[in-house]
Write a structure and sequence with these properties.
Shape: globular
Distance between the termini: 46 Å
CATH class: Alpha Beta
Number of helices: 7
Strand content: 15-25%
Largest sheet: 9 strands, mixed
CATH superfamily: NagB/RpiA/CoA transferase-like
CATH architecture: 3-Layer(aba) Sandwich
Radius of gyration: 16 Å
Strand order of the largest sheet: 6-5-4-3-7-10-12-13-14
CATH topology: Rossmann fold
């Protein structure tokens, strides 16, 4: 194991332990071995809806982990075409048309529901995403992302960028998952926007601010 991989493994364990010990982790529990769901994941999903990149997107690619379930549901509720990778990329991709799941957005945002109600496609059949959303175990302010260790998130991002060109990449995490430094390897893909329940951090600009809840955005913030 290289030094970077060993450091990554230690950081994953540290984050998982901290989320469990502070009772921030949410179902599925325990969070070890997963992209962790967290307290406030629904709020982070609401904050994504305030981004200009989200509002302009017609097609959104979202990872299949439970922590981003509300992001997938929001995409469908906002009338966006949802593209999701199958777990571990074992069965390609699925595209869910919001027009075909009206009233069933919550079910369609689950893995089982998406594959039941959506259409399985390969990469060549996939519509070009306007935005990528990935889960993370940890993230730093330079956009270095740490996944759960399988490398699938990096493969998803790299595959989409190779096929479709440059795309913005967003991650939703708890504030405790934002760390000073994440070990980086050449194969690792970076994130451009970090969204927590309390913050939006634009990596490329070095900007950090509270979510911009304008009058026009109030409809996104109802519970």
């Amino acid at each position: 194991m290289t030094d970077a991989r060993k450091a990554k493994s230690l950081l994953r364990e540290e984050i998982w332990r901290k989320l469990q010990a502070e009772r921030v982790a949410r179902f599925p529990l325990p969070c070890f071995g997963h992209v962790p769901n967290f307290e406030g994941s629904d709020k982070a999903a609401q904050n994504i809806r305030l981004l200009a990149e989200w509002k302009e997107a017609k097609v959104v690619f979202v990872n299949p982990d439970y922590a981003q379930k509300k992001v997938r549901e929001s995409a469908l509720l906002d009338g966006k075409l949802l593209v999701m990778a199958s777990p571990k990329l074992e069965h390609g991709y699925v595209v869910v048309d919001p027009a075909k799941v009206r009233g069933s957005e919550r079910d369609a945002s689950t893995i089982r529901g998406a594959f039941s109600l959506g259409k399985i496609v390969d990469l060549q059949q996939m519509p070009r995403p306007d935005l990528i959303v990935e889960g993370s175990v940890a993230i730093d302010l330079n956009g270095n992302r740490l996944g759960k260790g399988g490398g699938y998130g990096d493969v998803e991002i790299r595959t989409l960028k190779t096929e479709f060109g440059s795309l913005p990449v967003v991650t939703t995490v708890h504030d405790m998952q934002v760390v000073p430094s994440v070990p980086y390897e050449e194969k690792d893909e970076k994130v451009s926007i970090i969204v927590t329940p309390n913050r939006v951090i634009r990596v490329s600009r070095g900007e950090e601010h509270a979510p911009d809840v304008s009058q026009d955005s109030n409809k996104f913030c109802s519970t």
